[in-house]
């Protein structure tokens, strides 16, 4: 006889919910791992399962899902997705900062129609931007003297801003003052307000809460970005006031600090893997170059990026809210199915789902750069860009950025220009902090406390302390 569905494991009180809220924001990995370990202690026969757990975040009941199967169900199963809402889940966190209409917060039936419009716009953009990205990469690295020690994440964040503002606002003078510096500063204020643990807007003659500053920044950005769109300084043509407002609203998303930090997170992980990960004493860059055949090199670079996405997704998870009760199945496990009541939030933990042994085998938590090299199209990927109908609109763009950066650093872009290579680290790759190695998948037995100590996970993942590398210019023969 099949077992009746049960609620996610755990029973937090309102008092513990306050504590859990701070714990979750400090380190989702540590927060989730602690509750999973508690579950395993109470149910030792299920120690290998990725059972849903219950938590209190922002004083709401939350089902935290970390299995590949459950995350896939929530994102792809139409019988479940029709019972979920993005807009309700993000009503407090994002809606005040990203005014409608925007794809991020739309639910059916409005979402599919608007996404089709934006897919057409983005597809046209993707066909013409590779050379722009390449120029941004070359200009960025050229601005750094050969032999300089740089904070890799900080440098990648500067590059990400350059790319976003050049692509979406046709900027050519980034870093020289003017609107672009103002946009960066305002977007940073908006992000701090959005992720403030003090979700109340307060303004006094002497002090503004982060949320109040963020909301004011949003108003200024809306005006500034709509002016840029009206002047034709964006790649999307508009023919009326409604389209102008729609494009301006999405420019607020596309040029957000969250987007810049997400790209910087992925680039940091990709370049650490490319230059500092070693097998038998040989770095991955040298190993890829030894393939010689351009097609093989291209395929291996793509595999590197996909594997980095799987293990080190920039955004660790997303939320949904149930508008009806749902039941999640657990194939092949001894645990009963999970009931998530109406009105609960669901946190989809991409980091855990991408390391699920049930899908990725014994090497699920290990960085295997060739995992996707000549792999069949059915090979499961991680959830760095979500999945299903609400998958990230910028997936192809973000992958293009990562691949172009790698190709440029390796000298694979056909050009007479100089290329740039990160060739040194203070120590070797294995000298990286334990939590950083766990984030990259170089070590699989990393304690949750080490992860929390070494990796900042919200709003995007990055090392807590600077990773300093030496940058050296090389000229293509």
Walkthrough of the structure:
The termini are far apart. This protein has 477 residues and is an alpha+beta fold. It has 19 helices and 14 strands. 43% of the residues are buried. The strands form five sheets. A five-stranded mixed beta sheet has the order 1-2-10-7-3. A three-stranded antiparallel beta sheet has the order 4-14-11. Strand 12 and strand 13 form a beta hairpin. The longest helix is centred in the middle third of the chain and has 21 residues. It is globular and about 65 Å long.
Shape annotation: globular
The percent range for helix content is 40-55%
Oligomer: single chain
Tell me the fraction of residues in β-strands, as a range: 5-15%
Summarize this structure as a short list of keywords or feature phrases.
single chain; 477 residues; five-stranded mixed sheet; 14 strands; 12% strand
In brief:
This protein has 19 helices and 14 strands. It is an alpha+beta fold.
Structural topology:
Blueprint: H1 14-26, H2 28-42, E1 53-57, E2 60-65, H3 68-76, H4 78-81, E3 84-85, H5 86-89, H6 110-126, H7 130-142, E4 149-151, H8 152-169, H9 179-194, H10 210-230, H11 241-254, H12 257-276, E5 278-279, E6 282-283, H13 284-289, H14 294-311, E7 317-322, E8 326-328, E9 338-340, E10 345-349, H15 350-353, H16 357-360, H17 395-410, E11 418-425, H18 434-440, H19 448-454, E12 455-456, E13 462-463, E14 468-475
Parallel strand pairs: 2-10
Antiparallel strand pairs: 1-2, 3-7, 4-14, 5-6, 7-10, 8-9, 11-14, 12-13
Helix pairs in contact: 1-2, 2-19, 7-8, 7-17, 8-12, 9-10, 10-11, 12-14, 12-17, 14-17, 18-19
């Amino acid at each position: 006889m099949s077992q009746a569905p049960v609620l996610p494991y755990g029973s937090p009180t309102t008092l513990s919910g306050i504590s859990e809220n701070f714990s979750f924001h400090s380190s989702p990995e540590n927060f989730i791992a602690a509750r999973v370990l508690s579950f395993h202690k109470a149910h030792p026969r299920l120690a290998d399962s990725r059972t849903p757990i219950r938590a209190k975040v922002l004083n709401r009941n939350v089902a935290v899902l970390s299995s590949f199967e459950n995350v896939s169900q929530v994102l792809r199963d139409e019988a479940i997705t029709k019972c979920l809402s993005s807009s309700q889940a993000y009503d407090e966190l994002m809606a005040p900062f990203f005014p409608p209409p925007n794809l991020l917060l739309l639910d059916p039936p409005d979402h599919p129609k608007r996404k089709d419009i934006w897919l057409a716009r983005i597809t046209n953009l993707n066909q013409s931007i590779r050379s722009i990205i390449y120029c941004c990469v070359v200009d960025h690295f050229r601005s750094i003297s050969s032999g300089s020690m740089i904070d890799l994440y900080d440098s990648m964040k500067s590059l990400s801003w350059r790319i976003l503002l050049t692509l979406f606002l046709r900027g050519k003078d980034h870093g020289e003052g003017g609107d672009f510096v103002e946009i960066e500063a305002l977007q940073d204020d908006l992000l701090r307000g959005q992720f403030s643990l003090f979700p109340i807007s307060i303004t006094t003659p002497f002090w503004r809460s982060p949320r109040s500053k963020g909301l004011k920044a949003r108003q200024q950005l809306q005006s500034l970005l709509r002016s840029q769109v009206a002047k034709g300084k964006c790649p999307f043509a508009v023919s009326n006031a409604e389209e102008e407002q729609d494009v301006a609203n999405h420019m607020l998303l596309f040029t957000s600090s969250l987007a810049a930090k997400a790209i910087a997170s992925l680039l940091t992980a990709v370049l650490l893997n490319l230059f500092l990960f070693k097998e038998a004493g040989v770095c991955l860059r040298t190993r890829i170059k030894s393939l010689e055949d351009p097609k093989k090199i291209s395929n291996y670079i793509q595999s590197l990026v996909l594997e980095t996405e799987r293990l080190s997704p920039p955004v660790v998870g997303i939320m949904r809210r149930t508008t009806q009760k749902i039941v999640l199945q657990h194939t092949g496990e001894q645990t009963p199915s999970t009931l998530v009541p109406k009105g609960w939030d669901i946190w989809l933990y991409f980091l855990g789902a991408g390391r699920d042994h049930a899908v990725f085998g014994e090497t699920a938590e290990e960085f295997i750069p060739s995992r996707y090299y000549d792999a069949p199209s059915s090979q499961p990927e991680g959830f760095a860009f979500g999945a299903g109908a609400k998958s990230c609109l910028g997936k192809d763009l973000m992958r293009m950025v990562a691949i172009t950066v790698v190709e440029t650093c390796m000298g694979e872009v056909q050009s007479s220009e100089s290329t740039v290579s990160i060739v040194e680290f203070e120590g070797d790759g294995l000298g990286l902090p334990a939590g950083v190695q766990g984030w990259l998948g170089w070590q699989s037995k990393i304690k949750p406390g080490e992860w929390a100590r070494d990796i900042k996970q919200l709003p995007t993942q990055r090392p807590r302390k600077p990773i300093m590398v030496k940058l050296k210019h090389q000229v293509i023969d």
